[in-house]
Every structure is written in structure tokens, then in C-alpha cells.
Amino acid sequence: MHADANRILPPFHAFGLAIFAYLFFTLSDTLGKWLQAGGYGAAQILVTVNVTGFALMLCVAAVIRGPRAIFKGERWRLHLLRGLLLGGSTMLVLIAIRHLPLADFYGIVFLNPIWVALISRLILKQHIPPSRWLAIGAGFLGVLVIAGPRFADLNVGALAALAASLCSAGAALLARRIGGHEPPTNFSLATHATLVLLNLPVMLFVDGPVMPALPDLGLMVLYGVLLSIAMISISLVFARSHVVSQVAPLQYTQMLWGVLLGWLVFDQPPTARIFAGSLLVMGAGIYILHSLRRGRLMTH
């Protein structure tokens, strides 16, 4: 009983951890955009970042669980499948942020809750009330507003951001299937390992590795550290907190960070169109998250 109680994350800690996790995700995206602008291929960035992340998570798992229990877990197949989805999502994110300002990118990837609702209907056959369908439609309308005329030209960045949000939604559903009894480090270890395996052949035989300058290598390592901290933090929140439905909308704080960093680092101020489209997407996502929570409360 006492051991189980210690596994529960207090609400205040969950909210704080989630805010810092989403900030670190945004900082890592910013570093990815910066490094690509410096001439490094996405595959090389991801290999370096995820080797760093994997090594860091091995150390964390060894300290928390002991060296002999680092890989202890019962659902490694689901972890690896989730890792494939997140690996695809991460690769698509780097493509998207290479072509889009950060504000545009976050406006589109915030479709995540909308994809979850659609997947729940199409695959899990869950009922979607008319009001939620309206929210889904509003979310996609917001994406069209953000993409603007570029969407008609099948903008690579917009399509990559859409696909990344879909992969991320699938990974979120798998995380629910895996459950909160698995060690949080397993979520990160599987994702880092999958990303290295996916990108190493591309780096070696397609792009060709480039010897990074020492400052850039430091940025790649920092990227890996930030990403690992964000992954383990958000895994802890969703695995150990009773306020997941209240914490989930905090992902929209990434729009604030994205706008700020896009403006300060890349001199890409947001336009009125980006604000309007993002409000549609965020409003739709928050409504869907709220209605899902309300539905769960009514069934208990």
C-alpha cells in the first residue's frame, strides 16, 4: 500500500512537471531547426541526439532500478511499436520545422487530440457526439487557415506536421494501452533505440555523416538531454498522475514558447492568420479533451 502511494504524483507536481516537459520539447525542436539550418542532415542529428538520450536513460534506469533491472518490463513489443510511431513522428517533426516557422508548426501539430478522437471512432468504434464532430471540423479548418495558400501547393512542411501529429496520436493511444505499471524509463529507452536504428543507415549510406564543429556537437548533446528529460517527465505525469485530463491541455503552452522562440531565434514573428488558425485548433482540442473528461466522469 505504501509503495503504491509513493507512485502517485501530486497534482501540483504533475502540472509543474508537464509545463517544464513541454518547454523542453519546444527547446529541443528549436535546436533541431537551428542545426538543420547549419547544414546538418536530420538523420545525423537524430542519431547523435538519441544515442545521447539512450545513454542518459540507461544511467537513470540503473540508478532508479539497479543495473540488473534496467530492461525489466512486460510490454516491450508495445513499447517498440510505440517507439516506431514516435520515431516516425520525430523524423517528420524535423522535416516540418525545416520548412515552417515554429508558430505555424505548433498550430498544426496541436491536432493531436483531434486525431485521437477520430482514431477512437474509426478503430475503437467509440461514439462521437455531434458537438465533438463540430470541434473536429473546427480543428481541421484551423489547420487550413494556418497553412493558407501554401496548403494548395501541398507544402511539405504542413504535410509533415500533419503526419507527425497523427503518429503522435497513435503513440498516445498505445501509451494508454501499455498502462502506468511499466517503468517510465522503458518508454524513453524504446523510443531512443528505435530512432537510432531507423536513422543510422540513412546517416551512413544516404546522407553521409558530417564532422560537426565542437559547438554544434554540444548543441546536439544538449538536444538529447532536453529531449530525454522531456520524455521521462511527461511519461511520469501520464503514468503516475490522477489529473491527466486536466494536465493534457498544457501541451498548448508550446504555442507560447514556439511563438517566442521563433521570433527571438529565427526572426519569424507570428501573423494574424497564424493566431486565428491556432485559436481554432487549440479551442477544438481543449473542447475535445474537456468533453472526454466529462464523459468519463459521467460513466463513473
Explain the overall architecture.
By secondary structure, this protein is mostly helical. The chain has one domain (9-298). 79% of the residues lie in helices and 0% in strands. The chain has 13 helices and no strands. Helix 3 (42-65) runs antiparallel to helix 9 (184-207) and helix 4 (76-99) runs antiparallel to helix 8. 48% of the residues are buried.
What is the topological layout?
Elements: H1 2-6, H2 11-37, H3 42-65, H4 76-99, H5 102-109, H6 112-122, H7 130-147, H8 156-178, H9 184-207, H10 214-240, H11 244-247, H12 253-266, H13 272-298
The number of helical segments is 13
Main β-sheet description? none
Give the N-terminus to C-terminus distance in angstroms: 23 Å
The average pLDDT is 79
Fraction of residues in helix: over 70%
Count of extended strands: 0
Regions with pLDDT < 50 over 5+ consecutive residues? 1-6
Number of domains: 1
Shape: globular
Secondary-structure element series: HHHHHHHHHHHHH
Radius of gyration: 19 Å
Class derived from helix and strand content: mainly alpha
User: What share of residues are in beta strands?
Assistant: under 5%
Give the gist of this structure.
With 300 residues, this protein is mostly helical. The protein has one domain.
State the main characteristics.
300 residues, mainly alpha, globular, disordered N terminus
